[in-house]
Automatic annotation (TrEMBL):
Protein name: Glucosamine--fructose-6-phosphate aminotransferase (Isomerizing)
Highest taxon of source: Bacteria
Single GO biological process annotation from the record: carbohydrate derivative metabolic process
InterPro entries: GlmS/FrlB_SIS, SIS_dom, SIS_dom_sf
Domain annotation SIS: ranges: 34-174, 196-340
Species name: [Clostridium] celerecrescens 18A
Length: 350
Protein backbone atom coordinates (compact mmCIF):
# COMPACT_ATOMS: atom_id res chain seq x y z
CA UNK A 1 0.00 0.00 0.00
CA UNK A 2 1.33 3.43 -0.90
CA UNK A 3 2.01 5.41 2.22
CA UNK A 4 0.68 8.95 1.83
CA UNK A 5 0.72 10.17 5.43
CA UNK A 6 3.05 9.78 8.39
CA UNK A 7 6.10 9.14 6.20
CA UNK A 8 8.53 10.66 8.68
CA UNK A 9 7.20 8.76 11.66
CA UNK A 10 7.03 5.50 9.73
CA UNK A 11 10.62 5.84 8.51
CA UNK A 12 11.88 6.55 12.03
CA UNK A 13 10.16 3.43 13.35
CA UNK A 14 12.45 1.50 11.01
CA UNK A 15 15.57 3.25 12.32
CA UNK A 16 15.29 1.62 15.74
CA UNK A 17 17.88 -1.08 15.00
CA UNK A 18 20.51 1.62 14.41
CA UNK A 19 19.68 3.12 17.80
CA UNK A 20 20.26 -0.21 19.54
CA UNK A 21 23.52 -0.73 17.68
CA UNK A 22 24.74 2.72 18.70
CA UNK A 23 24.03 1.91 22.34
CA UNK A 24 25.95 -1.36 22.02
CA UNK A 25 28.93 0.50 20.59
CA UNK A 26 28.98 2.84 23.60
CA UNK A 27 28.74 0.21 26.35
CA UNK A 28 32.15 0.97 27.85
CA UNK A 29 31.21 4.63 28.33
CA UNK A 30 27.89 3.58 29.86
CA UNK A 31 29.65 1.21 32.26
CA UNK A 32 32.10 3.93 33.30
CA UNK A 33 29.28 6.31 34.22
CA UNK A 34 27.36 3.61 36.06
CA UNK A 35 30.46 2.70 38.08
CA UNK A 36 30.72 6.34 39.14
CA UNK A 37 27.06 6.74 39.97
CA UNK A 38 26.74 3.53 41.94
CA UNK A 39 29.96 4.03 43.86
CA UNK A 40 27.67 5.83 46.30
CA UNK A 41 25.08 4.03 48.42
CA UNK A 42 21.42 4.87 48.02
CA UNK A 43 18.29 3.91 49.92
CA UNK A 44 16.16 3.94 46.79
CA UNK A 45 16.00 4.75 43.08
CA UNK A 46 13.21 6.84 41.57
CA UNK A 47 12.78 6.74 37.79
CA UNK A 48 10.83 9.71 36.49
CA UNK A 49 9.54 11.18 33.26
CA UNK A 50 6.51 12.69 31.55
CA UNK A 51 4.13 10.94 29.16
CA UNK A 52 5.98 8.31 27.15
CA UNK A 53 9.02 8.74 29.39
CA UNK A 54 6.92 8.04 32.48
CA UNK A 55 5.73 4.78 30.98
CA UNK A 56 9.36 4.05 30.22
CA UNK A 57 10.17 4.80 33.87
CA UNK A 58 7.66 2.13 34.91
CA UNK A 59 9.45 -0.46 32.79
CA UNK A 60 12.89 0.71 33.96
CA UNK A 61 11.98 0.58 37.64
CA UNK A 62 10.69 -2.96 37.29
CA UNK A 63 13.85 -4.04 35.46
CA UNK A 64 16.13 -2.53 38.07
CA UNK A 65 14.21 -4.05 40.97
CA UNK A 66 14.25 -7.44 39.30
CA UNK A 67 18.06 -7.47 38.99
CA UNK A 68 19.02 -5.65 42.18
CA UNK A 69 18.20 -5.63 45.89
CA UNK A 70 17.94 -1.84 45.92
CA UNK A 71 14.30 -0.65 45.85
CA UNK A 72 13.21 1.23 42.72
CA UNK A 73 9.95 2.85 41.71
CA UNK A 74 8.53 5.09 38.99
CA UNK A 75 6.91 8.47 39.53
CA UNK A 76 5.90 11.21 37.12
CA UNK A 77 7.85 14.47 37.23
CA UNK A 78 4.93 16.59 38.37
CA UNK A 79 4.51 14.55 41.56
CA UNK A 80 8.20 14.91 42.36
CA UNK A 81 7.97 18.64 41.80
CA UNK A 82 4.84 19.27 43.85
CA UNK A 83 5.48 16.78 46.66
CA UNK A 84 9.25 16.22 46.91
CA UNK A 85 9.12 15.60 50.68
CA UNK A 86 7.08 12.47 50.08
CA UNK A 87 9.86 10.98 47.95
CA UNK A 88 13.30 12.30 48.90
CA UNK A 89 13.26 13.97 52.33
CA UNK A 90 15.85 12.53 54.72
CA UNK A 91 16.76 9.78 52.26
CA UNK A 92 19.69 8.94 50.02
CA UNK A 93 17.95 8.76 46.67
CA UNK A 94 19.15 8.44 43.10
CA UNK A 95 16.59 10.10 40.84
CA UNK A 96 16.72 9.05 37.19
CA UNK A 97 14.99 11.46 34.79
CA UNK A 98 14.20 9.89 31.43
CA UNK A 99 13.84 12.35 28.60
CA UNK A 100 14.14 12.71 24.84
CA UNK A 101 14.66 16.49 25.07
CA UNK A 102 16.46 18.15 27.95
CA UNK A 103 14.24 21.23 27.89
CA UNK A 104 10.95 19.57 28.83
CA UNK A 105 9.71 21.96 31.50
CA UNK A 106 8.36 19.47 34.03
CA UNK A 107 11.57 17.45 33.96
CA UNK A 108 13.72 20.49 34.67
CA UNK A 109 11.37 21.67 37.41
CA UNK A 110 11.34 18.27 39.12
CA UNK A 111 15.09 17.72 38.96
CA UNK A 112 15.91 21.22 40.17
CA UNK A 113 13.53 20.69 43.10
CA UNK A 114 14.77 17.28 44.25
CA UNK A 115 18.42 18.26 43.88
CA UNK A 116 17.83 20.92 46.54
CA UNK A 117 17.50 18.11 49.09
CA UNK A 118 20.67 16.71 50.68
CA UNK A 119 21.33 13.10 49.81
CA UNK A 120 19.81 13.31 46.33
CA UNK A 121 21.81 12.67 43.16
CA UNK A 122 20.52 12.39 39.61
CA UNK A 123 21.40 10.10 36.71
CA UNK A 124 19.78 11.01 33.40
CA UNK A 125 18.73 8.36 30.90
CA UNK A 126 18.46 10.46 27.80
CA UNK A 127 18.74 11.05 24.07
CA UNK A 128 19.93 14.63 24.61
CA UNK A 129 23.53 15.32 25.67
CA UNK A 130 22.42 18.68 27.08
CA UNK A 131 20.88 16.73 29.97
CA UNK A 132 24.39 16.77 31.44
CA UNK A 133 23.88 20.43 32.32
CA UNK A 134 21.45 19.72 35.15
CA UNK A 135 22.27 16.18 36.30
CA UNK A 136 25.11 14.61 38.25
CA UNK A 137 25.48 11.73 35.80
CA UNK A 138 24.13 10.81 32.37
CA UNK A 139 23.89 7.77 30.11
CA UNK A 140 23.06 8.55 26.51
CA UNK A 141 21.34 6.91 23.57
CA UNK A 142 23.65 8.45 20.96
CA UNK A 143 21.72 7.84 17.73
CA UNK A 144 18.11 8.80 18.36
CA UNK A 145 17.73 12.38 17.12
CA UNK A 146 14.11 12.10 16.02
CA UNK A 147 12.59 14.70 13.74
CA UNK A 148 9.09 13.31 14.34
CA UNK A 149 6.87 14.55 17.16
CA UNK A 150 5.87 10.99 18.07
CA UNK A 151 8.42 9.15 20.20
CA UNK A 152 9.37 5.79 18.68
CA UNK A 153 13.09 5.00 18.52
CA UNK A 154 13.76 7.28 21.49
CA UNK A 155 11.40 5.21 23.63
CA UNK A 156 12.74 1.81 22.69
CA UNK A 157 16.41 2.84 22.81
CA UNK A 158 15.96 4.20 26.34
CA UNK A 159 14.13 1.02 27.37
CA UNK A 160 17.18 -0.79 26.06
CA UNK A 161 19.51 1.53 28.00
CA UNK A 162 17.48 1.00 31.18
CA UNK A 163 17.59 -2.77 30.87
CA UNK A 164 21.34 -2.67 30.26
CA UNK A 165 21.77 -0.51 33.37
CA UNK A 166 19.72 -2.93 35.47
CA UNK A 167 21.74 -5.90 34.23
CA UNK A 168 25.12 -4.22 34.65
CA UNK A 169 24.50 -2.98 38.18
CA UNK A 170 23.07 -6.42 39.01
CA UNK A 171 26.22 -8.16 37.78
CA UNK A 172 24.63 -9.76 34.71
CA UNK A 173 26.98 -8.66 31.95
CA UNK A 174 26.51 -12.02 30.24
CA UNK A 175 22.88 -11.08 29.56
CA UNK A 176 24.06 -7.83 27.97
CA UNK A 177 26.57 -9.76 25.87
CA UNK A 178 23.74 -11.99 24.64
CA UNK A 179 22.20 -8.89 23.03
CA UNK A 180 25.22 -8.18 20.81
CA UNK A 181 23.11 -8.82 17.68
CA UNK A 182 20.10 -6.88 18.92
CA UNK A 183 20.00 -4.64 15.86
CA UNK A 184 19.50 -7.54 13.49
CA UNK A 185 16.90 -9.12 15.75
CA UNK A 186 15.09 -5.79 15.72
CA UNK A 187 15.17 -5.66 11.93
CA UNK A 188 13.56 -9.07 11.76
CA UNK A 189 10.80 -8.34 14.24
CA UNK A 190 10.02 -4.91 12.78
CA UNK A 191 8.92 -6.49 9.52
CA UNK A 192 6.87 -9.12 11.30
CA UNK A 193 5.11 -6.64 13.58
CA UNK A 194 4.46 -4.27 10.69
CA UNK A 195 2.71 -7.08 8.81
CA UNK A 196 0.79 -8.19 11.90
CA UNK A 197 -0.49 -4.70 12.73
CA UNK A 198 -1.49 -4.07 9.12
CA UNK A 199 -3.38 -7.37 9.08
CA UNK A 200 -5.19 -6.72 12.38
CA UNK A 201 -6.37 -3.24 11.39
CA UNK A 202 -7.12 -4.23 7.79
CA UNK A 203 -9.24 -7.24 8.75
CA UNK A 204 -11.18 -5.54 11.55
CA UNK A 205 -12.44 -2.23 10.25
CA UNK A 206 -14.92 -1.59 13.04
CA UNK A 207 -12.50 -1.60 15.99
CA UNK A 208 -13.04 1.43 18.20
CA UNK A 209 -11.50 0.42 21.54
CA UNK A 210 -7.91 -0.79 21.88
CA UNK A 211 -6.74 -2.53 25.06
CA UNK A 212 -3.10 -3.39 25.78
CA UNK A 213 -2.23 -5.68 28.68
CA UNK A 214 1.05 -6.66 30.30
CA UNK A 215 2.67 -7.68 33.58
CA UNK A 216 6.13 -7.01 34.94
CA UNK A 217 8.31 -4.96 32.64
CA UNK A 218 5.61 -5.25 29.99
CA UNK A 219 3.16 -3.13 31.98
CA UNK A 220 5.08 0.06 31.20
CA UNK A 221 5.46 -1.05 27.59
CA UNK A 222 1.71 -1.75 27.39
CA UNK A 223 1.05 1.78 28.63
CA UNK A 224 3.24 3.16 25.87
CA UNK A 225 1.43 1.03 23.26
CA UNK A 226 -1.80 2.56 24.54
CA UNK A 227 -0.23 6.00 24.20
CA UNK A 228 0.87 5.44 20.61
CA UNK A 229 -2.66 4.43 19.62
CA UNK A 230 -4.00 7.64 21.16
CA UNK A 231 -1.31 9.92 19.70
CA UNK A 232 -1.11 8.49 16.21
CA UNK A 233 -4.57 7.04 15.66
CA UNK A 234 -6.63 9.48 17.78
CA UNK A 235 -8.47 6.44 19.13
CA UNK A 236 -9.76 5.26 22.49
CA UNK A 237 -7.14 3.06 24.12
CA UNK A 238 -6.47 1.76 27.61
CA UNK A 239 -3.71 -0.25 29.28
CA UNK A 240 -3.77 -2.44 32.37
CA UNK A 241 -1.88 -5.06 34.29
CA UNK A 242 -3.28 -8.14 32.61
CA UNK A 243 -5.33 -9.63 35.43
CA UNK A 244 -6.57 -6.22 36.55
CA UNK A 245 -8.63 -6.07 33.38
CA UNK A 246 -11.27 -8.37 34.85
CA UNK A 247 -11.92 -5.98 37.72
CA UNK A 248 -14.38 -3.68 36.00
CA UNK A 249 -12.82 -2.55 32.69
CA UNK A 250 -13.84 -5.71 30.82
CA UNK A 251 -17.43 -4.45 31.00
CA UNK A 252 -16.66 -2.44 27.86
CA UNK A 253 -15.55 -5.42 25.78
CA UNK A 254 -17.53 -6.19 22.64
CA UNK A 255 -16.92 -7.11 19.02
CA UNK A 256 -15.40 -3.67 18.39
CA UNK A 257 -12.62 -4.19 20.94
CA UNK A 258 -9.03 -5.28 20.30
CA UNK A 259 -7.33 -6.88 23.31
CA UNK A 260 -3.58 -7.04 22.74
CA UNK A 261 -1.56 -9.06 25.26
CA UNK A 262 2.19 -8.66 25.73
CA UNK A 263 2.87 -12.15 27.00
CA UNK A 264 5.29 -12.49 29.92
CA UNK A 265 6.82 -15.92 30.52
CA UNK A 266 5.77 -15.89 34.20
CA UNK A 267 2.11 -15.10 33.54
CA UNK A 268 1.21 -17.12 30.45
CA UNK A 269 -1.13 -19.61 32.12
CA UNK A 270 -3.54 -17.07 33.56
CA UNK A 271 -3.08 -14.70 30.64
CA UNK A 272 -4.18 -17.43 28.25
CA UNK A 273 -7.38 -17.90 30.22
CA UNK A 274 -7.98 -14.16 30.24
CA UNK A 275 -7.53 -13.80 26.51
CA UNK A 276 -9.86 -16.73 25.83
CA UNK A 277 -12.45 -15.13 28.09
CA UNK A 278 -12.22 -11.80 26.24
CA UNK A 279 -12.59 -13.58 22.93
CA UNK A 280 -15.70 -15.21 24.33
CA UNK A 281 -17.10 -11.74 24.95
CA UNK A 282 -16.57 -10.88 21.29
CA UNK A 283 -13.17 -9.16 21.37
CA UNK A 284 -10.57 -9.49 18.67
CA UNK A 285 -7.55 -10.91 20.49
CA UNK A 286 -3.82 -10.80 19.80
CA UNK A 287 -0.75 -11.97 21.71
CA UNK A 288 2.99 -11.44 21.35
CA UNK A 289 5.62 -13.36 23.32
CA UNK A 290 8.36 -15.94 23.11
CA UNK A 291 5.92 -18.80 22.57
CA UNK A 292 2.63 -16.93 22.11
CA UNK A 293 1.36 -19.26 19.40
CA UNK A 294 1.51 -22.15 21.88
CA UNK A 295 0.55 -20.33 25.06
CA UNK A 296 -2.28 -18.31 23.49
CA UNK A 297 -3.37 -20.66 20.74
CA UNK A 298 -7.01 -19.52 20.96
CA UNK A 299 -6.07 -15.92 20.13
CA UNK A 300 -7.06 -14.54 16.75
CA UNK A 301 -3.52 -13.33 16.08
CA UNK A 302 -0.19 -14.48 17.54
CA UNK A 303 3.43 -13.56 17.00
CA UNK A 304 6.35 -15.45 18.52
CA UNK A 305 9.68 -13.85 19.46
CA UNK A 306 12.05 -16.74 18.71
CA UNK A 307 15.34 -15.06 19.60
CA UNK A 308 16.18 -16.82 22.85
CA UNK A 309 15.76 -13.63 24.89
CA UNK A 310 14.20 -13.36 28.32
CA UNK A 311 11.40 -10.91 29.06
CA UNK A 312 13.79 -8.12 30.06
CA UNK A 313 15.73 -8.53 26.84
CA UNK A 314 12.52 -8.58 24.80
CA UNK A 315 11.13 -5.39 26.34
CA UNK A 316 12.46 -2.94 23.75
CA UNK A 317 11.34 -5.16 20.86
CA UNK A 318 7.84 -6.00 22.00
CA UNK A 319 6.88 -2.32 22.09
CA UNK A 320 7.11 -2.03 18.29
CA UNK A 321 3.57 -3.36 18.00
CA UNK A 322 1.96 -0.28 19.53
CA UNK A 323 3.80 1.96 17.08
CA UNK A 324 2.57 -0.03 14.10
CA UNK A 325 -1.01 -0.37 15.30
CA UNK A 326 -1.13 3.38 15.92
CA UNK A 327 0.30 3.97 12.47
CA UNK A 328 -2.20 1.75 10.65
CA UNK A 329 -5.15 3.24 12.52
CA UNK A 330 -3.92 6.66 11.43
CA UNK A 331 -3.55 5.47 7.85
CA UNK A 332 -7.06 4.01 7.85
CA UNK A 333 -8.49 7.30 9.13
CA UNK A 334 -6.41 9.48 6.81
CA UNK A 335 -4.60 11.06 9.77
CA UNK A 336 -1.05 12.36 9.38
CA UNK A 337 0.81 11.11 12.47
CA UNK A 338 3.72 13.38 11.51
CA UNK A 339 1.50 16.22 12.74
CA UNK A 340 -0.29 14.78 15.80
CA UNK A 341 -3.13 16.84 17.20
CA UNK A 342 -2.17 19.26 19.99
CA UNK A 343 1.30 17.73 20.47
CA UNK A 344 4.93 18.86 20.15
CA UNK A 345 8.31 17.18 20.65
CA UNK A 346 8.59 18.49 24.20
CA UNK A 347 6.06 20.17 26.45
CA UNK A 348 7.36 23.64 27.32
CA UNK A 349 5.28 25.56 29.85
CA UNK A 350 5.46 29.31 29.41
Amino acid sequence: MEKKNSQLTYSEVYKQPESFEAVNKSLENIYRVLDQAFAEEFDELIFTGCGTSFYLAQAAAHAFSAYNCLPAKAMCCSELYYFPEAFVKNRRVLVLPITRKSYTTEVRMAIDKVRSFPGVKTLAITCDKDSAAYNDYMILSPDTAEDSVIMTRSFTSMVYLSVIMAMYVGGKKEEIAAMADYGNRARDVLGKMDALAKKIIGENEHLNLFITLGQGIYYGVANECMNKIKEMGISNSEAYYSLEYRHGPMSLVDENTLVLLLSHSKTVEEDGKLLAQMKGYGAVTAAIGNTASVDMKEADYCLDLPYGYNDMQNAALIGFIGQFIGYYIAEKKGIDADQPRHLSQAIVIQ
